[in-house]
TrEMBL record:
InterPro entries: Chitinase_II/V-like_cat, Chitinase_insertion_sf, GH, Glyco_hydro18_cat, SH3-like_bac-type. It comes from Robinsoniella peoriensis. The keyword Signal does not apply. This is Putative sporulation-specific glycosylase YdhD. GO terms for molecular function: chitin binding; hydrolase activity, acting on glycosyl bonds. PROSITE patterns: GH18_2, SH3B. Residues 250-566 form the GH18 domain.
């Protein structure tokens, strides 16, 4: 019996030993770091030997560059989106443009020569290269105008660009170690670092730290492998461009003057007879006439003389309202932009007006780059000629973010919020043209991007009388009419209605059934509502106050505004 038991025990022991070995192997395997290495081409996204990877600050980006001899080139889109958005590519003209506060720099593709305003200059390399639909800029040329530094590493070819400066955390390796693609010992190895090598600390987690090596690998090492963590200040000797502004040492009090023909110009003296406290008048003189950049103009030197005789500056307005004009097409053309800016400057000099007011509305998103480039180029010419440049913007909404108010606030002298059209002719419901919450939101969201002293808030001197018509089938139709202050009061008086103050909108409100049987609603703009809006100039320390338009107001309104804008 004992002889039979012995083999059984031996078998059990053997099974146990094998099991223990298996368990031990799995335990060892679990806690043994992998030696698997990630392909560097895969990591950097390199698909051919001519490509150069781009590491911008602390991320490997999808954009690429390349080396041509000793000259490194960067994808234009990478420059624009990360490094310096003031480089502008005009594909139709095959040129790149860069604007400074005082110069327009034009760089033809494939050339070493470029112009700074009218002056020719040269580099010893081609500044712009085009490969199919890709545009590349020489890194050295970008660096001339950008607070960036870069270095090139080989095998594989890659450029490491630093463009953000300030406090950076560094640490040193306690001993030689592998940098892994992700946190975890089973993650593939990206590269190896040696004892005392310095890495940039990007993020510290429980057990692993995200780091960047000096040669551009971004990965993870265990926390216990790092020592001497320290914070250092980084900077580069670079002189940022200074955008001087032509601003006044007093609050701007502007009113727009709708000029539709020469008779409107001739009527100026009569139209401004009751003005009080206004120091700028903005006549609607210019419109883009076609996609080539020609303008229609009602500019009039006698109008300017009359305005000056009444202590008014003239800031002539230009709009894009013509149905014959494709805003994207005209603003995307360097030749068209130049034609527009040259005509405006020439007219200002010839007629003696002090400012240009740009009122481009409903700007499509695909016109955004051309639009802000137009503003930059116009600002250079205005600055050189001492002409005030102001820009009209709607109250900020997500769908107008591409207007780039931040850049406007840098290059223009004033940014005017058109604090109205909360409800407009095509609105689906009746409502105020400019309720207080709407107006305040426009101000707070604009001054988050533009210095308050450059911001002018514009109010409506008009309101909308809303008409709700009920059809025989029970459906309703909504329509409205823009009317001035006196006409609004007459409508109420004719219907025996008295408006009541609405705290929500900070306006007088009324609704009534008219003699035609239709329902009417109106939110009034009058002395009370305008006073509440004028108070905001002081409350937010704005650069001034504006109103659309001359003729919709009554004389008593000017004394109200003058209490807060002087």
């Amino acid at each position: 019996m004992k002889k039979k038991i012995v083999p059984v025990i031996a078998a059990v022991v053997m099974i146990a030993i094998v099991a223990l070995i298996g368990i031990a192997t799995k335990v060892v395997e679990k806690y043994t770091p992998t030696n698997e290495r990630m392909s560097v081409e895969e990591y950097f996204g390199i698909t051919n030997e001519n490509e150069m990877a781009l590491i911008l600050q602390d991320q490997v980006v999808e954009y690429k560059g390349f080396l041509s001899g000793d000259t490194a080139y960067i994808d234009y889109e990478a420059v624009k989106n990360y490094l310096n958005s003031r480089f502008y590519w005009d594909a139709s003209a095959n040129i790149c443009i860069y604007t400074t506060p005082t110069d327009i720099i034009t760089i033809p593709a494939g050339k070493k020569e470029y112009t700074v305003s009218a002056n020719k200059q040269n580099e010893n390399y081609e500044i712009v290269k085009v490969d199919g639909d890709k545009v590349y800029l020489a890194a050295d040329f970008v660096q001339k105008y950008t607070n960036m530094d870069y270095k090139i590493e080989k095998d594989p070819s890659r450029m490491i660009v630093t463009y953000k400066w300030g406090k950076v955390t560094y640490a040193d390796l306690k001993k030689s170690e592998s940098v892994r693609y992700q946190g975890g010992i089973k993650s593939p190895v990206l590269t190896d670092v040696k004892k005392n090598d310095q890495v940039t600390v990007l993020e510290v987690m429980d057990d692993w730290t995200k780091v960047m090596t000096k040669d551009g690998y971004i990965g993870y090492v265990q926390n216990k492998r790092l020592a001497n963590s320290r914070e250092e200040e980084t900077s580069r000797d670079f002189e940022e461009p200074v955008y001087t502004s032509i601003t006044r040492d007093h609050k701007i009090n502007l009113v727009w003057h709708q000029v539709t023909n020469e008779d409107s110009n001739a009527a100026l003296a009569t139209d401004i007879a009751e003005l009080k406290g206004v120091n700028v008048i903005s006549p609607t003189w210019f419109s883009i006439a076609d996609n080539d950049g020609n303008l229609t103009s009602l500019a009039d030197a006698d109008y300017v003389k009359t305005a000056h005789a009444n202590d008014l500056e003239v800031w002539a307005l230009i709009d894009n309202f013509s149905e014959q004009v494709d805003t994207t097409k005209v603003l995307s053309s360097t030749a068209s932009r130049e034609k527009i800016t040259n005509q405006l400057i020439a007219s200002a000099i010839q007629n003696g007006f002090e400012g240009i007011n740009v009122d481009f509305e409903t700007i499509p998103e695909d016109a955004a780059d051309g639009y802000i480039q137009f503003i930059r180029e116009l600002s250079v010419k205005c600055r050189k000629n001492g002409i005030v440049l102001s820009i009209d913007d709607p109250v900020p909404k997500p769908f107008t973010a591409h207007y780039n108010r931040k850049e406007q606030g840098i290059v223009a002298d004033y940014v005017i919020i058109m604090g109205y059209d909360e409800h407009y002719v095509g609105s689906e419901e009746a409502g105020s043209v400019a309720s207080m919450p709407f107006v305040k939101a426009g101000i707070t969201e604009t001054i988050a991007e533009v210095p308050a002293e450059k911001v002018i808030n514009a109010v409506p001197f008009y309101t909308r009388l809303w008409k709700i018509t009920t059809n025989k089938n029970g459906s309703t139709e909504l329509s409205s009419e823009a009317i001035g202050m006196d006409q609004a009061d007459e409508s109420l008086a004719n219907n025996g209605v008295e408006a009541a103050w609405d705290e929500g909108t900070m306006q007088d409100y009324a609704e009534f059934t008219g003699g035609d049987g239709n329902n009417y609603k109106i939110w009034l703009e009058n002395e009370k509502s305008i006073e509440e809006k004028a108070k905001l100039v002081k409350e937010y320390n704005l650069g001034g106050f504006a109103a659309w338009k001359l003729g919709f107001e009554r004389a008593s309104i000017w004394d109200v505004i003058l209490k807060y804008v002087s």
